[in-house]
Amino acid sequence: MAVAPTNSNRVFALIQTKDQGSLWRSDDAGFHWKAVNYQRSLIGRAGYYIRIAVSTGNDNEVLVANSSFHQSLDGGQNFQEVRWGGDTHDIWIDAANPDRFVITDDAGMIITTVHGRGFHRVTLPIGQMYHVDVDSQTPYYFYSNMQDDGNMRGPSVPIDSQETGWDRHMGGCESGFTIPDQADPNIVWATCYGDEVTRWDGRTKTARSVSPYLHTLDSPPTDIKYRCHWTAPLAVDPFDHNVVYYGCQVIFKTTNAGQSWTVTSPDLSTQDPSRIVSSGGIVGDNLGQFYGEVVFAIAPSKIQRGLIWAGTNDGQLWYTKDGAANWTNVTKNISGLPLWGTISSIAPSNFDPATAYIAVDFHLMDNRDAFLYKTTDFGKTWKPISSNLPKFALGYVRAIAEDPNCAGLLFAGTGNGLYYSLDDGGHWTALETGLPHAPVTWAVVQKDFHDLVISTYGRGLYIFDDITPLEQLAKSHPDAPTVLFEPRPTHRFVRGGQALINFSLKSAPKDPVEIEILGPESKTIRKLKTKAHVGINRVKWDMRYESPRLIALRTATSENPHIWQEPRFRDADSRPITHWGISPAEVGPMVAPGKYSVRLTVTGQSFTEPLTILPDPRISASEADIASSVKTQLRIRDDITHASDVFNQIEWLRKQIEVIETMLRPPKKKEKEKPPSAEPDDFDEPEPAPAEDEAQSKRKAELLKTVEEMDKKLQSVELKLVTPSQINSDDKYFVEADKVYLNLIWLNAEVGPGGGDVAGGADFQPTDTALELLQAIETELTAAVADFQELIERELPAFNHILTENNLAAVTAAAAASSGTEK
Predict the structure, then answer these.
(1) Per-residue pLDDT tens for 659-707?
(2) What is the CA 364 to chain-centroid distance, rounded?
(3) Counting beta carbons within 10 angstroms of the beta carbon of residue 42, is it exposed (0 to 12), middle (13 to 18) or buried (19 or more)?
(4) Smaller CB count within 10 Å for the chain: N or C?
(5) How far apart are CA 654 and CA 647, in angstroms?
(6) pLDDT over 70 (residue 225)
(7) What's the distance, Cα to Cα, between the start and end of the chain in Å?
(8) What is the phi-psi region of residue 787: left when phi exceeds 0, alpha when psi lies from -120 to 50, beta otherwise?
């Protein structure tokens, strides 16, 4: 129903009936009604979405949102479909401006301020993900299905802020499972509602429908041979990737890529006819989401061939030990289990074939408690392990997962969050860092990377990088005041790679803690400092050596004498040389694969653990190639530091000279401002400054000339390292050829990390051209350094003598190591 905001007597009622829908209108506040429209599309899929709204500026303009979007301009008598949304849920109209309204649909929301003549689409981070899986690539990919979108996969180590490397719509659809072939990640299996199974080949980016039966979209479950749920389960055999299982009320099996299927189980449900019915409602909505008496989970064991567990959405639990030829029902062995639960998740143990964990969800039966169980004897007996999981409206458990690297470390996804147990379900702790409260629908641990990957129904996908601290806590239960966890082996990924350093503290230290990275020869190659807190702390190391020291400009520029008044440099002691694209290359090189150490120092006490950097298996470069690349980048880094140190010493000298020049220059005459109405005699003339004698003025002028000449000599050395335009610290000025400093930074980008539009080459040996260019640039740098040394050694002492003779302080160069900035 909707009341016209501009005319409260006008009321609309949009009504659905079994055979027809109708729009009714009252113009006397509901005392009398008349049907004004029988357009059937106005009640399209009304059980799922239906909304009517009246414009805040015109009581004849009526909007209807459902599977399409409709607009009437004559009080509902005639509607036309407008392309303002699809699968549309809601409408909001600005009470003060009828041209401004918002429409929400399955893809997000659209906003208009021009009455629908144009829209701005807003995509919100509210992805409803059904499940998630991972493959065994390096780096691994995650796989999932998103409601109202489709399935997808993407790299676990992001390449950039976009979706580079992602694939979308790989067969399947919004619901169901998307599972990679662990032996060949080019092959991806997926399910969808309506008994749809697909097999996608990443080499050709094509999907093939390989369903075992009819496409059952629209069908009530009583009218079809096989009942397949909205999220029908799918599993690839861990021991034979050619064997794939798919569940309806029976389990199907294919061994030939879906070319043919065989039924390999009996009906595993209770087969209760009272539960095998149409969706209900005024008009049915049979997409499989309401199907009862179906298989809901299939879970093959990864350590015992032929062992498969299966569960249904009517509370039945089965297993087979012979590859699905014979099945055993163990439901009755679960003491205290209520009826009609959904076996939503099964986790066969990675360590003991007789052990398995199950999550049973009863929230559709309005029982919101957590139901988790464990067996250690193939289902003969079961132990509840829900222990201290909270009991509240969203406390039910959707998913259970075991860490394949650590027996007893479990993860449970509930209707509102994620929990972990270090003691095989004896006690549970909320895992909340960085994770918003949302239903956690699935969880999986990627074995090689020690990552926990989860799907949520409402906040998308999350990766908890590196759960080795939890694994080590579960295995050894350390209780020391300070614990430095052994870092996981980390791959040398040039793009997106990082090593995670984890430590726990029982008390927070007053001063920052220091972390040192030690190279193979136990020499410190990087220092990191961080403020630490009680509990587990994490520091990210980008696997790089220390960055070069950079140029820090301290003097004004003739082209921009007001540069220090600019907001970006106001109150600053120095300013950098800025140029588009160079920032990523102002870093040290990424270390080569090998053995390193991490040293943590807290309040004077040090702790050390080994850290292994693994090669990226995707690249073809040899160990010698990478070593050559790192060696060359270190050489470039040191050259940048050398150039910066020389330049910064000159800047310290020139800054002092700049002050002396200001002292020696004659003061500028300033006219006193007078009000416009002032008369010439209204103000006294200012007292003149004491006059200097002619000899003193001449001496200061000669001294100023000497100082300016020294400044020019120093600046001439600077301009062998940088260009005049770069001294202005402008980002996008492309006016003259670079000198030593920027040529080194751009060469570092070429050989190493890239920058701007330079791709980089840290995964390859340096090119011959790069080495030749480096030699040429170093020759120019050597010449500039020699000129500086000559000035320092031969001319600066005489210059300082002149200054002291004239009662001025001598100028000095700052220590090189402290004169620049480090990135």
Answers:
(1) 999 999 887 765 555 555 545 555 455 555 555 678 888 888 999 999 9
(2) 33
(3) buried
(4) N
(5) 10
(6) yes
(7) 62
(8) alpha
Question: Residue 92: what are its φ and ψ, rounded to 5°?
Answer: -130, 130
pLDDT tens-digit series, residues 434-478? 899 999 999 999 999 999 999 999 999 999 999 999 999 999 988
Strands 21-26 and 7-16 turn out to be antiparallel
As a dihedral over the C-alpha atoms of residue 361, residue 364, residue 365, residue 367, rounded to 10 degrees, the angle is 60
Please state, as a whole number, how many other Cβ atoms lie within 10 Å of the Cβ of residue 692. 12
How many residues belong to the chain?
823
Separation of alpha carbons 369 and 395, rounded Å:
6
Concatenated DSSP letters for 293-322? S-EEEEEE-SSSTT-EEEEETTS-EEEESS
Quick check: 231 and 130 in contact, CB under 8 A? yes
Q: Give the span between the Cα atoms of 191 and 306, in whole angstroms.
A: 23
CA–CA separation, 559 vs 116, rounded Å?
Answer: 51
Q: What is the 3-state secondary structure (H, E, C) of 744-770?
A: HHHHHHHHCCCECCECCCCCCCCCHHH
- Residue 790 is classified by DSSP as H
Residues linked to residue 451 through DSSP beta bridges, in sequence order: 446
Q: What is the pLDDT of residues 708-745, one digit of tens each?
A: 999 999 999 999 999 999 999 888 888 899 999 999 99
pTM of the full structure: 0.91
